[in-house]
Amino acid sequence: MENKSTTHLDSSVIIAYMNTSDRDQYEYGHSVVYRLRKERERGNATIVISSTALAEVLLWIAERPKPTEAVEAVHRFRELFEALDPKIVWPDEEVCECAGEIRERDYEIEHADSIITAHALLDPDSIRLVTTDQQVIKSRAVDEMNAKLVGEEGRRRRKLRIGENP
């Protein structure tokens, strides 16, 4: 049996990695990617990015006010992919149902964030979702869904950690 952990990465962390206009965010993003890259190099981690998070990142790049900023962001995005070699996952019916349940119970969570969170919750091998999104981190609905998947349904071996630190 492999001793690998799976970490889901939210778009907020990827954007922080690329955002040179906000020094604190940029340093945060780089520190997270550095730690995850080290784990992956030791063979201890698989990094997962939802296609929904990927779409949010691509939209952020496209919205850069200057073409040179977009080019720089694409370069950093490529660096991140080379460093982490992430697995991209696509929503299926189960993910959409889980995301819908999250939104029904916590309407303040954005649709895209509910999909990204559902991917991490439904992945039985995931140990954490790294995000800066406080709506997700502090959501009672997400916390209850997390506990339900461990307890009643037995879908997860352990509770998913959701927060800013890997």
Overall helicity: 55-70%
CATH fold category name: Rossmann fold
Low-confidence stretches: none
Percent of residues in beta strands = 5-15%
Query: CATH homologous superfamily name?
Result: 5'-nuclease
**Looking across the biggest beta sheet, what order are the strands in?**
3-2-1-4-5
Structure, explained:
The protein has 166 residues and is of the alpha/beta class. The chain has a single domain (1-166), classed as Rossmann fold, CATH 3.40.50. Helix content is 58%, strand content 13%. It has a five-stranded parallel β-sheet, with helices on both faces. Helix 1 packs parallel to helix 3 and helix 3 (51-62) runs antiparallel to helix 6. It is globular and about 50 Å long. It starts with a strand and ends with a strand.
Task: Jot down its keywords.
Rossmann fold; alpha/beta; 58% helix; five-stranded parallel β-sheet; 166 residues
